[in-house]
């Protein structure tokens, strides 16, 4: 039993020793001129740049980036693995990402949209560069690639640039939806370019929010007024509701580019017990159907306790609005 325990202890020490030797082989440069040396120089430069200031800090950081890119490119091109279906080394993707960050990133946000967009194209250029040189070491000279290699380079560059274009298109659509969030309520089923992964929004939230903001203001202006005053107010409903709509849009949609694409209009309809006031939030921006859309919230206005005698001019008005707005595709109904 003691013998077996001793053997297990020896095996454990051997495992730890092999692990240490593997780490040492990876960390310790086999010679002075190696990829590990470049990585260590980049770390050394970044540590020094932390304590420097001004132009010296930028120069040292720039040198650190150069060492990091060179060391990474060297390490990933030693027996490189290829991206499936291409002759692009996986290392070119890593190096291209570092070059893109170095060229287009900034201190506040290292990974920017431009960094992601240009990454595939830069990786393809890095892959193509060695094809224009022949020889090794000091005997390297520039040369024109063979016809077969030229075809592969052109195809790789074309595919990479196409991928960059699609990534850029994603960022453009994302920016549009942030500046014009009401577009997310539209129907993109017939689009050959846009695929909605999230469920379709039932109604544009900005248009719905404006209606919810206007409703209590209209209720305040109408509720408990005499019936004759309310009828005069309804005669001027276009101006009254329009002004409230402009004020609410300016107050609540100032951060969105789409604020100029919303319009608030009323529709007054005579009903048996009084009037129905329809408040419309109309989208005037682009839509897939070409006819637009609008949201509607209806309010019932009638004289209090005078259903039997609506001609009573001293009656006061009551107003009751729908709790939720309704969404309609197409043009709004004409004003009467």
Task: Note down, in words, how this protein is organized.
- By secondary structure, the protein is α+β, with helices and mostly antiparallel strands.
- The protein has 9 helices and 7 strands; from the N terminus they run αααααββααααβββββ.
- The strands form 2 sheets. Strands 3, 4, 5, 6 and 7 form a 5-stranded antiparallel sheet that branches.
- A hairpin with a 6-residue loop joins strand 1 (133-134) and strand 2.
- Helix 2 runs antiparallel to helix 3 (54-76), helix 4 (90-104) crosses helix 5 (113-128) and helix 7 crosses helix 9 (237-252).
- It is elongated.
- Mean pLDDT is 77; it is low at 306-310.
In total, how many beta strands?
A: 7
Radius of gyration: 35 Å
Q: What's the order of the H and E elements?
A: HHHHHEEHHHHEEEEE
Distance linking N and C termini: 102 Å
Q: What's the tally of helices? A: 9
Mean of pLDDT: 77
Beta-strand fraction estimate: 5-15%
What percent of the residues sit in helical stretches (DSSP H or I)? 40-55%
Low-confidence stretches: 306-310
Largest sheet: 5 strands, antiparallel
Q: Could you say which overall geometry the principal axes of the C-alpha atoms support?
A: elongated
| Structural class based on helices, strands and sheet pairing | alpha+beta
């Amino acid at each position: 039993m003691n013998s077996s325990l001793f053997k297990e202890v020896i095996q454990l020490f051997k495992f730890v020793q092999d692990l240490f030797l593997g780490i040492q082989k990876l960390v310790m440069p086999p010679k002075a001129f190696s990829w590990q040396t470049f990585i260590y120089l980049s770390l050394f430069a970044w540590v020094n740049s932390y304590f420097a200031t001004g132009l010296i800090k930028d120069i040292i950081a720039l040198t650190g980036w150069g060492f990091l890119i060179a060391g990474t490119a060297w390490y990933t091109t030693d027996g490189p693995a290829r991206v499936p279906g291409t002759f692009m080394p996986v290392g070119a993707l890593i190096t291209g990402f570092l070059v893109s960050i170095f060229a287009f990133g900034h201190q506040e946000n290292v990974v920017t949209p431009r960094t992601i967009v240009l990454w595939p194209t830069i990786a393809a250029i890095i892959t193509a560069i060695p094809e224009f040189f022949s020889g090794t070491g000091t005997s390297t000279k520039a040369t024109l690639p063979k016809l077969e290699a030229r075809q592969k380079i052109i195809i790789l560059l074309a595919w990479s640039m196409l991928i960059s274009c699609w990534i850029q298109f994603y960022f453009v659509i994302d920016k549009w939806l942030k500046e014009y969030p009401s577009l997310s309520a539209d129907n993109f089923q017939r689009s050959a370019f846009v695929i909605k992964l999230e469920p379709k929004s039932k109604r544009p939230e900005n248009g719905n929010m404006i209606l919810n903001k206007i409703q209590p203001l209209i209720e305040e202006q109408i509720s408990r007024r005499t019936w004759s005053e309310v009828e005069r107010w309804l005669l001027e409903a276009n101006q009254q509701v329009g002004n409230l709509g402009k004020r609410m849009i300016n107050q609540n949609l100032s951060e969105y580019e789409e604020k100029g694409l919303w319009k608030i209009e009323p529709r007054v309809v005579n009903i048996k017990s009084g009037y129905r006031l329809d408040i419309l939030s109309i989208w005037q921006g682009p839509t897939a159907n070409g006819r637009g859309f609008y949201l509607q919230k209806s309010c019932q206005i009638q004289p209090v306790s005078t259903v039997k005698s609506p001609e009573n001019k001293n009656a006061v008005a009551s107003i009751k609005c729908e709790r939720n707005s309704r969404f309609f595709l197409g043009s709004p109904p004409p004003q009467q």
